[in-house]
Fold this protein.
Amino acid sequence: MKMVIVASKIPTTPARPTPMWFHRGMADGAQGDRAGGWVRLRRRVTFRSDWFEVRRDDVLRPDGSRGEYDHVQVPDSVTVLAMDGNRNVLVTRQWIYVHGGTQWRLPSGRMDGEDRSPEDAARRELAEETGVAARRWAKVGVVHGSDSFTNHREHVFVATDLRPAGEPALEPGEADLSVHWLGFDQVLGMVRAGEMPHAGSAFAVLMAESAAHGS
């Protein structure tokens, strides 16, 4: 996705308090930041909610021309591939509002202001969505979901040596979420068939398959 050039006047948006997650790794740099040939001259926030912030930057492009770059700032998120000793995987199924359909995916969610690290968020999300905890954690990597449009980063983990952790603590928007144990090979087949389109989930499963074969 390329830069969006908009000539219309920016609508006035009522000021909102800055959400807590914005204070961690989300702060603006100094005006005139230069990176990769881009120069940011000015930044305006056109919309802010508890979930994301829309920014419009006045920029100089690498070719020296001037324009506006609209982008969305969101908190980081996490995805967890939780697998037991028999290679069974915890998978959730729920309605995804923005895609208008029900999806299979691994336990996942955004980082909250109380999370001290991505691993803390991953531990919390796994327990909240499935009622399961893990004694062993390994970070697989980070996925950039939609470069040029948003700064979103998804931290992906593998969790093993599982144990019960009480009842799930679902949010109101997760009331339809159901939890399933599926064999790893079945989950891998779902990813390959396009039946698990969630980026973090697909990345976790494919990386685990690669690691299992030493590649």
